[in-house]
Amino acid sequence: MNVATRAIPNRRLNTMILLFATVTVFAVAFIPGKHYDVTSATVQQARGLIDSVAVFVDVRNEEAFKKRHIPDALLIPVAVLRTAIPNSLADAKAKPVVVYCGEVASIGPEGTFLLNQAGYAKAVNLKSGIAGRARAGLPVQGK
Question: 3-state DSSP helix/strand/coil percent for the chain, to nearest 5?
Answer without folding.
Answer: 50, 15, 35
